[in-house]
Predict the structure of Carbon starvation protein A.
Amino acid sequence: MLTFFIALLTLVAGFMTYSFFVEKLLPPDDRETPAIAHPDGVDYLPLPLWKSFLIQLLNIAGLGPIFGALSGALWGPVVYFWIVFGTIFAGGVHDYFSGMLSERHNGASISEIVGIYLGPQMKTVMRVFAVVLLILVGTTFSTGPAGLLALLTPASLNVTFWLAIILVYYFLATLLPIDKIIGRFYPFFGAALIVMCVGVGGGLVVRGYNLPEMWDGFANLHPRALPIWPLMFITVACGAISGFHATQSPMMARCITNEYQGRKVFYGAMVAEGVIAMIWAAAGVSVYNGTQGLWDATTSLAGQSALVYDICIRVLGPVGGVLAMIGVIVCPITSGDTAFRSARLTLADWFDIDQKPRVKRLLLSVPLLLCGALLSNMNFQVVWRYFSWSNQTLAMIALWAAAVFLCKARHNFWPLAIPATFMSAVSSTYILVAPEGFGPAISRMVSGEALTGAAALKAASAVGYPAGIAFAALCFAAFWFKCVRPNAAK
């Protein structure tokens, strides 16, 4: 249990110290923010700090820090390291620069920011990546809460019924001005999220669950011996660093009322999400008495939704479990709605479509929601895996864009370049070894036979590991010779 508290305190300490260091790299000033300079009554609306923070937190804290942390807990307490240090040195930095660079460029979408600093080709790649990712997020965060709601309601109200209700809500949240639904209901949703976190975390401590210590098992404890690198770093995305956040931060960049709110809203919300991930990782590995018990529960219960429900009931009992489940349901819904909204804004920036007229918002909202409805019929686990990889790839690109900004501004770029290089290795290695990537083809090439599971991953890693490191080195070399050296020579 001591490791759990040390991890939580380290997250808080990271916000109290490292966030100030990051803020100095892109220091705020007294310029007018987009919300003050030209409010439009739809997307550019001044909001108070507390509301901006809550909306940002609820936007980014979907099922990722819950489902991802539970899956990451299969590797044992080592996952705490990634959640803590990933949040402080990668996720918080990524979110702060995504939000502040958007604010400095009139609330532009992340794809437009990437185009400014990495060129028009990367802007096109990022536009496609962002829209696809956002639709995947919206779809993922539709099926998950629909499953959870179906568990809590009579059998006649099945998953299909709740999925239809959620998609209708998403359509309204995508179409209407941000203060009509999101700004009005998110404070209540935020309260539900806080109840969930405090309830589950407090229940683990009060009920005396055996939370494993890092020094008791600093090893790969995955029951199927799946490698920590790079699988854990992709599985636990939203609880450490997430490119999805870069698509969400511009929304609040259009609503904050002064730049000094940026550190609290963007970096602070990421740290809060890290706390959520820590609580659920601890719950997964302790409620079932270790990783083997968690694996058995994961495979025996009907999906991740049932696993979350089971943990809530075990930790808090029937009444507390329902309260906690409300928080778990709120998390994905408050990310799914803004995912589709961000997709609309990204397309609007892409094709320069004014979003003040309702008809033009409809022209973008309807096709997006139809795509989400069609994808909701796909296997959740398949959608989640592709979402996770595209998520971390988008984070990699956003970090490189911010590193180029700092380089051109003649500021210290290392706090961005180091996590950007690391995430380049993570993302490229994963797609080379994973079953949903090139793993099967590479493992067959290496071994000469069709392998599956851990054996296939091991065979593919013979090529994927060095290739991933080489790709990361190539990215850093390109950054150094195309940005650092030319700017140093001026």
